[in-house]
Amino acid sequence: MALITEGLVSSLILTIVFFAIILISIMQATEDRVPKIKSLAALDAIREAVGRAAEMGRPVFVGTDKGGLLDQYAPHTLAGLAICGYTAEICAELGTPVYYLSQVAHVIPAATLTLKEAYIKKGQVLDEDYAIRYVSESDQAYATACLASFDREKPGACIYAGAWFGNAIKVPPGGRKVGAINIGAAARMYGFIFFVAACDYTLIGEELWAAGAYLSKDFKHIGALRGQDILKFAVLLLLLFSLLLGQTFMGALNA
Amino acid sequence: MSDTILKQREIPLIIFAVSVLIPILGYHLDVSLLDVTVDTFVEWGAYAANFAFFVGLISLYRSQMRNVTRRTPGQWQYSILTIGIVSLMVVVGFVYSPGFDWLTFNVFFPSQQAMVAYMGFQTIIIIYIGFRVKDLGSALFTLAFIAVTFTYMSFLESYSPIFQLFGNWVNSVPNMAGQRGLLVGIGIGLFSVVIRTILGYERTFMAGAEE
Lengths: 255, 211
Hints:
The complex is a heterodimer. By secondary structure, chain A is an alpha/beta fold. Chain A has helices at 9-28, 41-56, 74-94, 108-121, 128-131, 139-153, 167-170, 172-177, 189-198, 206-216, 219-254; strands spanning 60-63, 98-102, 132-134, 157-161, 181-186, 201-204. A 6-stranded parallel β-sheet of chain A has the order 3-2-1-4-5-6, sandwiched between helices. Chain B has helices at 2-7, 10-28, 32-69, 76-95, 97-130, 136-151, 154-157, 162-198. In chain B, α2 (10-28) crosses α3 and α6 (136-151) crosses α8.
């Protein structure tokens, strides 16, 4: 009996190679040799958006939509929470209230810790009952709650980060309606296409994964991004090689 | 002491690493013990999610009660309504299940459908916001949108097949190439996030744990 499931040998090899390259990149990163990363306008704009909300005396909305921590969208939610935490930190610094609407109950403890920690860093105390609000597991109820809160509380900035699904269509126009700066960040194809159209700034695809490294400026974190770039280059070479090989041998076979 | 052990960040990291690595190994390796472990993990996940529902319920009551006790202007009336409806659903759900079904089919589902219908209007708003020519990027975006929309207008085909051909080309060549390029980046990025989380660099979700 084979140890490796039939048809998954190449997948296992690639998984191990991918893990190894990123691990080596993290281990090789040193404090005096930090790779340069390009600026991400959407993340830079968060401070500006929160500052504007503070000047207007309005709160800031953050949300991660339907992604949980127990499903395949967990990395999206984690990356989204990192952005929510960064936003909360600026809110605590500028004295602007921030609120997080939750669609997934089990994300509440993680979101609470993230926002609480951000406030503690700035020597502030988070009003949990105001800041963390569970709505419902239903998509439609979540969208309704977001739009209703926008209408009543008139946030000055709305940050949508994580695995946004259909609500990426319904919610951002509500933020725009009340004059908020909309910043979207999603790595799901059906999330960010709507953010591109409806938000003022957007993090697309892998930029969401880079957000944690970009915000922390940790050299090990940035080392992992270098590993990602190496892998992308390798995949590109592999594609070109497959293309050439396919063209050459298919031609020979057809002849 | 037990408090210190539970607060250490290594424990959630180990749990995270094990719960990520075992399904990956279970998918690739043909070992029955791994399959059983993966199934158990999935079951545990379902139980944890169900228990977490109570966390959600408590959060909902706390935030709505805050509005009621503080008489938050323009909100406390809605909060009373929310608390009443949620309590009604919970009580009826436990006591009289036909009543729960009636409320679900006659109140909850129609409200949901209204919101789904609203999505159409929001889509139009997004089109209005997004497809305005401000620079080269937005011009290309708008052009692609027009080309693809023309593909779905069957009467245009009777004038010239070029509309159909151009729209299909936009869909299957630049759009597909862009999507695949993004998916490669997203897939590789996922590996990176998982490794960074296992190693403890990405630890926002367990803030408060001792360094």
